[in-house]
Amino acid sequence: MDFKLNDEQRMLEETVGRLVRDTYTFDARNKILESDQGFSADMWNQFAELGLLGVPFSEEAGGFNGGGPELMVVAEGFGRGLVVEPYLATVVLSGTLIDKLGNDAQKEQWVAAIIGGETRFALAAYEPQGRYDHTVVDTSAKKDGDGYVLSGEKAVVLHGDSADQLVVIARTAGNAGDRDGLSAFIVPADADGVTRKGYATIDGLRAAEITLSNVKVDGDALLGEEGQAIDALEATLDLALITLCAEASGAMEVACDQTLDYIKERQQFGVPIGKFQALQHRMVEMRMELEKVRSITMLAACSLDAPADLRKKRISAAKAQVGKSGRKVAEEAIQLFGGMGMMEETPVSHYAKRIVMIDHWFGDREYHLGVLETLIDVDDHAA
Amino acid sequence: MDINYTPEERAFRDEVRGFLNDKLPADIARKVKEHKRLGKEDTVRWQKILNEQGWLALHWPKEYGGTGWSPIQKHIFEEECAEAGAPTVLPFGVNMVAPVIIKFGTQEQKDHYLPRILRSDDWWCQGYSEPGAGSDLAGLKTRAVRDGDHYIVNGQKTWTTLGQHANMIFCLVRTDPDAKKQEGISFLLIDMEKSEGITVRPLITLDGEHEVNEVFFDDVKVPVENLVGEENKGWTCAKYLLTFERTGIAGVGASKAALAHLKQVAREQQVNGKPLIEEPHFRARLADVEMELMSLEMTNLRTVAAAEAGGVPGAESSFLKIMGTELRQEITDLFRRAAGPHALPFLPEEMAGDFEGPYVGPEFAASVASRYFNFRKLSIFGGSNEIQKNIISKMILGL
Ligand SMILES: Cc1cc2nc3c(=O)[nH]c(=O)nc-3n(C[C@H](O)[C@H](O)[C@H](O)COP(=O)(O)OP(=O)(O)OC[C@H]3O[C@@H](n4cnc5c(N)ncnc54)[C@H](O)[C@@H]3O)c2cc1C
């Protein structure tokens, strides 16, 4: 075992760290939040130039050939700066799914466009009645000559408001809840029949409710075999969960650091409030939660090649831990800041919001505990 | 021991229910129940209805226009109001400054301010906290210097709740900078409309709302007759007021109403084709909240009953503050979970009083995340929960 980053991973960490420190200041981020799109196209170009958009893709495709640890390193850095650009939506959720399912022509076209920063994607998978369950898909894709006609509703599609292209998960067979019969399609976001209701989310991102009504696509919009998308979709969602856990880890680290600095500085009763033992112990507990999240995120990030059951077990455990520990760290950070913690002008409140709301993306603590419960007998000894 | 209400108490509850049924405006109750933003007009309209009935000033003695109710009656009233969706009364006038004026004020002050408070002529706000004086309130620096028949006030207050609507502020100010911390403080009533040199600036909270403010005083002239109690004895008023600030602090009525709403939502929301309320993790947490609420309600009633028997709720109210606020916060956490992914959309327009839809997610989900974050304040203000624990350690445990 070796917990150190290798040279390439360290380089990646430094690249992201520098970018976030130098350009992603609190004020710069606030300006980005206020912009129409809710993210910065300039920043996106910088990601492309630095090679960050290629992290999970193969070298032949022009990528970095990164795996879980590489994505973890990038996402932690993003978490430290509360980066709001559509990295997860484009690169992780859509790009890796295309990479897993697509034929050579599709990969050549889309993966290259993603790595180059030219095309932004969103994954339209979850549906209103399915909550966190990606198999509860009612959106239908009916064969129509050489192509398909798609109809249905997609809920809280991350960055679905601004994406150029959508990867839509639709049902070509079976019923909501079935694992078989799910297919993935590439649909231009401006196709006839696509309506998007975009909005900001409380953690600083953007999303959309998307309705597809009789959207016609060609046969070559289909990614992979008809009805066989589930394994690739789950592997992709697992990668997204690792990314989110790592982002949470980075954000929690900053929330802990800022709180520690604050209680050393803030004077009440003639002393820094950090002198009160009641608060010292609280700070210690926050740090313990952070350490747990760091550790379990590493475990999850290094489990991508494990057998599917073990991979899912560890990744769901990590996401559930983030839900539990994240809430604690966020609430305690606000509490220890007192009234200042409640203010929009105080950076820690933004960290708290992101950390808490990460629980609502791709399955909350209860949902992933439920997954974990079904996998409790899976042997989790390290290979 | 008998945990049931007496026949008189039951009759009283029926009377309160009848009143709420007849007089609580449906549009206001709807906003409260759906967690929409309430305007100043809504609060004032409801306060006027209460006052007509003689039920606004719960804690005042009868001779000043108060109800003269027993603590149990107040508890019943509070619970019924919460269940019916009545808005909370603005506490700063009727429940905070008024008891201080009644106890320490001059006859002129009583004659002038108390009827105005009953009629909702004034909108009061509380000027205690300062940037450097939160938990350590006695560290406040806002200065008032006597100049003939006026005080000249300079300094800054902060976190002033709903100060943007206020025309009156009660302030703790330092009148003797050389005395020991608590001893040089005075309690002043300041007219924000007529005085020159007052600036109110909005502070935006993490949920994007404008609920608190900063209030700056720049050579503000305040007539000496606006001093309540003796000069340099303001700390006595401040402490007296805090005991009133903590009445109803357990928020049992609010928690009961919120839990009932939460259960209803959990019955309606579907997870995998089944109601959320049947989802084992969620149901276990609901049961846990229910248990805590039973314990809290009984603790509250015991405290209240002890007060009825003559004792004033003292440090015991600190228990209620901690238990009550933690429970209310936990319920907001469950609401957030009930909404699932639809807790994420942040659409302030969906929280406006006149929003008719369509909603992006389920209607109840529109405000859940905002409320969860907003309610973090409950464990910070009114004496933070850590400060309450310090009080309990000292006053009850003798540590
Ligand atoms: C939404 C909101 C509305 C408010 N409305 C009003 C209002 O209308 N009028 C008004 O005057 N004030 C108001 N306040 C201010 C409120 O009373 C203060 O925020 C509160 O007293 C805490 O002070 P502080 O924010 O300065 O935090 P601090 O006092 O700086 O406390 C920071 C942290 O340290 C802890 N701490 C401090 N001292 C100790 C100790 N001795 N032992 C252990 N822990 C300690 C606190 O519990 C807290 O967790 C409001 C605050 C909020 C958030």
UniProtKB/TrEMBL annotation, chain A:
Keyword line: FAD, Flavoprotein, Oxidoreductase
Annotated ranges, domain Acyl-CoA oxidase/dehydrogenase middle: 122-215
All copies of domain Acyl-CoA dehydrogenase/oxidase N-terminal, residue ranges: 6-118
Segments forming domain Acyl-CoA dehydrogenase/oxidase C-terminal: 234-371
GO function terms (MF aspect): acyl-CoA dehydrogenase activity; flavin adenine dinucleotide binding
Family statement: Belongs to the acyl-CoA dehydrogenase family.
Cofactor dependency: FAD
Record protein name field: Acyl-CoA dehydrogenase
PANTHER family attached to this UniProt entry: ACYL-COA DEHYDROGENASE, ACYL-COA DEHYDROGENASE FADE28
InterPro entries cross-referenced by the UniProt entry: Acyl-CoA_Oxase/DH_mid-dom, Acyl-CoA_Oxase/DH_mid-dom_sf, AcylCo_DH-like_C, AcylCo_DH/oxidase_C, AcylCoA_DH/ox_N, AcylCoA_DH/ox_N_sf, AcylCoA_DH/oxidase_NM_dom_sf
UniProtKB/TrEMBL annotation, chain B:
A GO MF label: flavin adenine dinucleotide binding
Protein name (record): Acyl-CoA dehydrogenase family protein
Record flagged with keyword Repeat: no
Domain of life according to the entry: Bacteria
All residue ranges annotated as the Acyl-CoA oxidase/dehydrogenase middle domain in the record: 125-220
Record keywords: FAD, Flavoprotein, Oxidoreductase
Domain Acyl-CoA dehydrogenase/oxidase N-terminal: 6-119
Family indicated by similarity: Belongs to the acyl-CoA dehydrogenase family.
Known cofactor(s): FAD
GO cellular component: plasma membrane
Residue span, Acyl-CoA dehydrogenase/oxidase C-terminal domain: 232-396
